[in-house]
Design a protein that fits this description.
The chain is an alpha/beta fold and 265 residues long. Helices cover 28% and strands 28% of the residues. The strands form 4 sheets. It has a 6-stranded mixed beta sheet with strand order 6-9-10-3-11-12.
Length: 265
Protein backbone atom coordinates (compact mmCIF):
# COMPACT_ATOMS: atom_id res chain seq x y z
CA UNK A 1 0.00 0.00 0.00
CA UNK A 2 1.30 3.45 -0.93
CA UNK A 3 2.25 5.74 1.95
CA UNK A 4 0.30 8.59 0.34
CA UNK A 5 -2.35 8.14 -2.34
CA UNK A 6 -3.87 11.08 -4.18
CA UNK A 7 -6.80 10.43 -6.49
CA UNK A 8 -8.34 13.09 -8.74
CA UNK A 9 -7.56 15.94 -6.38
CA UNK A 10 -9.02 19.17 -7.79
CA UNK A 11 -6.73 22.13 -7.15
CA UNK A 12 -6.97 25.42 -9.02
CA UNK A 13 -7.57 24.19 -12.60
CA UNK A 14 -5.60 20.95 -12.20
CA UNK A 15 -6.68 17.35 -11.61
CA UNK A 16 -3.95 15.50 -9.71
CA UNK A 17 -3.32 11.82 -9.12
CA UNK A 18 -0.12 10.64 -7.43
CA UNK A 19 1.13 7.76 -5.31
CA UNK A 20 4.10 8.19 -2.98
CA UNK A 21 5.48 4.80 -2.02
CA UNK A 22 7.48 4.02 1.09
CA UNK A 23 11.15 4.59 0.30
CA UNK A 24 10.55 7.29 -2.32
CA UNK A 25 11.73 10.87 -2.71
CA UNK A 26 9.26 12.71 -4.96
CA UNK A 27 9.59 16.20 -6.42
CA UNK A 28 6.88 18.73 -7.27
CA UNK A 29 7.60 21.33 -9.96
CA UNK A 30 5.76 24.21 -11.56
CA UNK A 31 6.64 27.64 -12.89
CA UNK A 32 3.81 28.85 -10.65
CA UNK A 33 5.10 28.71 -7.08
CA UNK A 34 1.58 29.11 -5.66
CA UNK A 35 0.31 25.80 -7.05
CA UNK A 36 3.31 23.95 -5.56
CA UNK A 37 2.68 25.53 -2.17
CA UNK A 38 -1.06 24.88 -2.31
CA UNK A 39 -0.53 21.25 -3.31
CA UNK A 40 2.02 20.51 -0.58
CA UNK A 41 -0.22 22.01 2.08
CA UNK A 42 -3.08 19.76 0.96
CA UNK A 43 -0.82 16.69 0.65
CA UNK A 44 0.56 17.32 4.15
CA UNK A 45 -2.95 17.52 5.61
CA UNK A 46 -2.75 21.19 6.59
CA UNK A 47 -5.40 22.38 4.12
CA UNK A 48 -8.50 20.40 3.11
CA UNK A 49 -8.68 18.62 -0.21
CA UNK A 50 -10.75 15.69 -1.41
CA UNK A 51 -8.78 12.70 -2.65
CA UNK A 52 -5.66 12.58 -0.39
CA UNK A 53 -5.32 9.38 1.64
CA UNK A 54 -2.94 7.71 4.08
CA UNK A 55 -3.89 4.10 4.84
CA UNK A 56 -7.30 4.75 3.24
CA UNK A 57 -8.07 7.69 5.55
CA UNK A 58 -8.13 11.35 4.55
CA UNK A 59 -4.89 13.11 5.49
CA UNK A 60 -6.69 16.33 6.42
CA UNK A 61 -6.63 16.87 10.18
CA UNK A 62 -5.46 13.25 10.54
CA UNK A 63 -3.68 12.88 13.90
CA UNK A 64 -2.01 9.58 13.03
CA UNK A 65 -0.69 11.02 9.76
CA UNK A 66 0.59 14.14 11.51
CA UNK A 67 2.51 12.13 14.11
CA UNK A 68 4.83 10.69 11.47
CA UNK A 69 5.33 13.58 9.08
CA UNK A 70 6.64 17.12 9.22
CA UNK A 71 5.95 20.03 6.87
CA UNK A 72 8.51 22.82 6.60
CA UNK A 73 8.77 25.85 4.34
CA UNK A 74 12.42 26.88 4.28
CA UNK A 75 11.38 30.44 3.41
CA UNK A 76 10.03 30.66 6.96
CA UNK A 77 12.14 31.58 10.01
CA UNK A 78 11.42 28.79 12.50
CA UNK A 79 14.35 29.47 14.83
CA UNK A 80 15.55 32.60 16.60
CA UNK A 81 18.30 30.83 18.53
CA UNK A 82 20.76 27.95 18.20
CA UNK A 83 20.66 27.18 21.91
CA UNK A 84 19.55 23.56 21.91
CA UNK A 85 18.03 23.68 25.39
CA UNK A 86 15.75 26.55 24.35
CA UNK A 87 14.79 24.83 21.09
CA UNK A 88 14.08 21.55 22.86
CA UNK A 89 11.90 23.22 25.48
CA UNK A 90 9.90 25.23 22.93
CA UNK A 91 9.28 22.22 20.69
CA UNK A 92 8.19 20.05 23.60
CA UNK A 93 5.94 22.58 25.32
CA UNK A 94 4.34 24.23 22.29
CA UNK A 95 4.19 21.41 19.75
CA UNK A 96 4.82 18.20 21.65
CA UNK A 97 7.78 17.36 19.41
CA UNK A 98 10.93 15.49 20.36
CA UNK A 99 14.31 16.97 19.40
CA UNK A 100 17.61 15.22 18.72
CA UNK A 101 20.10 17.72 20.16
CA UNK A 102 23.17 15.73 19.15
CA UNK A 103 22.09 15.56 15.51
CA UNK A 104 21.25 19.28 15.45
CA UNK A 105 24.65 20.21 16.89
CA UNK A 106 26.50 17.91 14.46
CA UNK A 107 24.75 19.33 11.38
CA UNK A 108 25.13 22.86 12.74
CA UNK A 109 28.90 22.41 12.89
CA UNK A 110 29.06 20.82 9.43
CA UNK A 111 27.19 23.77 7.91
CA UNK A 112 28.78 26.41 10.18
CA UNK A 113 25.37 27.87 10.95
CA UNK A 114 26.83 30.21 13.56
CA UNK A 115 28.91 31.80 10.83
CA UNK A 116 25.66 32.70 9.05
CA UNK A 117 24.04 34.44 12.02
CA UNK A 118 24.22 37.70 13.92
CA UNK A 119 24.21 36.44 17.48
CA UNK A 120 22.25 38.32 20.13
CA UNK A 121 19.24 37.75 22.35
CA UNK A 122 17.57 36.59 19.14
CA UNK A 123 19.71 35.22 16.32
CA UNK A 124 19.37 36.92 12.94
CA UNK A 125 20.29 34.52 10.16
CA UNK A 126 21.45 35.29 6.66
CA UNK A 127 19.18 33.78 3.95
CA UNK A 128 21.61 30.85 3.64
CA UNK A 129 21.87 30.56 7.42
CA UNK A 130 18.09 30.36 7.74
CA UNK A 131 17.98 27.46 5.29
CA UNK A 132 20.86 25.75 7.12
CA UNK A 133 19.06 26.16 10.45
CA UNK A 134 15.81 24.84 9.00
CA UNK A 135 17.59 21.84 7.49
CA UNK A 136 19.29 21.01 10.80
CA UNK A 137 15.91 21.27 12.54
CA UNK A 138 14.28 19.05 9.90
CA UNK A 139 16.87 16.35 10.54
CA UNK A 140 16.77 16.73 14.33
CA UNK A 141 13.00 16.25 14.57
CA UNK A 142 13.50 12.61 13.49
CA UNK A 143 10.21 12.41 11.58
CA UNK A 144 10.22 9.58 9.01
CA UNK A 145 8.19 11.45 6.39
CA UNK A 146 8.95 15.01 5.29
CA UNK A 147 7.25 17.63 3.13
CA UNK A 148 9.52 20.55 2.23
CA UNK A 149 8.90 23.79 0.35
CA UNK A 150 11.69 26.12 -0.91
CA UNK A 151 14.46 23.65 0.02
CA UNK A 152 17.42 25.64 -1.36
CA UNK A 153 16.22 29.18 -0.69
CA UNK A 154 19.08 31.61 -0.12
CA UNK A 155 21.80 29.13 -1.13
CA UNK A 156 24.41 29.97 -3.77
CA UNK A 157 27.34 27.60 -3.30
CA UNK A 158 26.96 24.30 -5.22
CA UNK A 159 28.40 22.30 -2.33
CA UNK A 160 25.81 23.72 0.07
CA UNK A 161 22.96 22.99 -2.33
CA UNK A 162 24.28 19.47 -2.91
CA UNK A 163 24.51 18.71 0.82
CA UNK A 164 20.98 19.91 1.57
CA UNK A 165 19.39 18.06 -1.36
CA UNK A 166 21.38 14.88 -0.77
CA UNK A 167 20.35 14.87 2.88
CA UNK A 168 16.64 15.42 2.43
CA UNK A 169 16.30 12.89 -0.42
CA UNK A 170 18.19 10.15 1.44
CA UNK A 171 15.65 7.35 1.81
CA UNK A 172 17.94 5.61 4.30
CA UNK A 173 17.14 8.54 6.62
CA UNK A 174 13.58 9.41 5.59
CA UNK A 175 10.85 6.96 4.65
CA UNK A 176 9.36 9.45 2.18
CA UNK A 177 10.23 12.95 1.01
CA UNK A 178 7.83 15.18 -0.92
CA UNK A 179 9.74 18.25 -2.05
CA UNK A 180 8.69 21.43 -3.81
CA UNK A 181 11.50 21.99 -6.31
CA UNK A 182 12.85 25.54 -6.42
CA UNK A 183 15.67 24.72 -8.85
CA UNK A 184 15.75 21.62 -11.01
CA UNK A 185 19.34 20.74 -11.91
CA UNK A 186 20.65 19.87 -8.43
CA UNK A 187 17.88 17.27 -7.99
CA UNK A 188 19.06 15.17 -10.93
CA UNK A 189 19.49 11.54 -9.87
CA UNK A 190 17.83 12.15 -6.49
CA UNK A 191 14.12 11.63 -7.20
CA UNK A 192 11.98 8.59 -7.97
CA UNK A 193 9.37 10.67 -9.78
CA UNK A 194 8.29 14.27 -10.27
CA UNK A 195 4.81 15.74 -10.27
CA UNK A 196 4.84 18.44 -12.95
CA UNK A 197 2.21 21.16 -13.21
CA UNK A 198 2.25 22.37 -16.80
CA UNK A 199 1.52 25.81 -18.21
CA UNK A 200 -1.52 24.25 -19.89
CA UNK A 201 -3.62 23.24 -16.87
CA UNK A 202 -2.47 19.61 -16.80
CA UNK A 203 -0.60 17.65 -14.13
CA UNK A 204 1.78 14.81 -15.02
CA UNK A 205 3.70 12.30 -12.91
CA UNK A 206 7.01 11.71 -14.69
CA UNK A 207 9.84 9.27 -13.89
CA UNK A 208 12.93 10.81 -12.38
CA UNK A 209 14.91 10.49 -15.60
CA UNK A 210 12.16 11.63 -17.97
CA UNK A 211 13.17 13.00 -21.37
CA UNK A 212 11.46 16.01 -22.89
CA UNK A 213 11.46 17.55 -26.36
CA UNK A 214 11.90 21.23 -27.20
CA UNK A 215 9.95 22.27 -30.30
CA UNK A 216 9.94 25.56 -32.24
CA UNK A 217 6.16 25.49 -32.11
CA UNK A 218 3.42 23.22 -30.81
CA UNK A 219 2.75 20.32 -33.16
CA UNK A 220 -0.44 18.31 -33.13
CA UNK A 221 0.90 15.08 -31.63
CA UNK A 222 2.78 16.74 -28.76
CA UNK A 223 1.71 16.82 -25.11
CA UNK A 224 2.88 20.30 -24.08
CA UNK A 225 4.26 21.15 -20.65
CA UNK A 226 5.78 24.63 -20.90
CA UNK A 227 6.06 27.48 -23.36
CA UNK A 228 7.81 30.84 -23.48
CA UNK A 229 5.73 32.01 -26.44
CA UNK A 230 8.40 31.09 -28.98
CA UNK A 231 9.14 27.45 -28.25
CA UNK A 232 7.31 24.64 -26.50
CA UNK A 233 8.66 21.96 -24.17
CA UNK A 234 6.63 18.76 -24.40
CA UNK A 235 6.66 15.15 -23.29
CA UNK A 236 8.85 13.09 -25.57
CA UNK A 237 6.69 10.19 -26.64
CA UNK A 238 8.13 9.89 -30.12
CA UNK A 239 9.70 6.78 -31.63
CA UNK A 240 13.00 7.03 -33.54
CA UNK A 241 11.20 6.85 -36.88
CA UNK A 242 8.97 9.76 -35.90
CA UNK A 243 11.97 11.85 -34.88
CA UNK A 244 13.67 11.07 -38.19
CA UNK A 245 10.51 12.15 -40.01
CA UNK A 246 10.51 15.41 -38.11
CA UNK A 247 14.12 15.99 -39.14
CA UNK A 248 13.21 15.24 -42.75
CA UNK A 249 10.35 17.73 -42.53
CA UNK A 250 12.84 20.27 -41.13
CA UNK A 251 11.11 20.53 -37.78
CA UNK A 252 13.91 21.50 -35.44
CA UNK A 253 13.92 19.97 -31.96
CA UNK A 254 16.15 19.26 -28.97
CA UNK A 255 15.87 16.28 -26.66
CA UNK A 256 16.57 17.31 -23.07
CA UNK A 257 16.49 15.98 -19.54
CA UNK A 258 13.62 17.14 -17.37
CA UNK A 259 16.27 18.70 -15.12
CA UNK A 260 17.42 21.03 -17.93
CA UNK A 261 13.99 22.57 -18.45
CA UNK A 262 14.86 25.87 -16.77
CA UNK A 263 17.65 26.45 -19.32
CA UNK A 264 15.04 26.67 -22.07
CA UNK A 265 12.52 28.97 -20.39
Amino acid sequence: MAYLKIENLQLQNYTISLEVENGEAVGVFSRNADIVSDFLKVASGINPGKGCYHEEKSVYDNREYFQNRIFMDFAHNYLTTLRTSSIEEALKNKLGLSFNKEKFIKIGKELNIRGEALIGKQYKFTPAGNTFANYALLQALDKPNIVVLNPTRGLNLPEDIEMIIKGMTDTAVFNTALIGIDRMKPFKGRLSKILVFSDFGTAHVLPGEAQLIVLPHLIEQATPLFTDGEKTIALCGYEKDELKRMQKDRIGFDLISLYAVEDYL
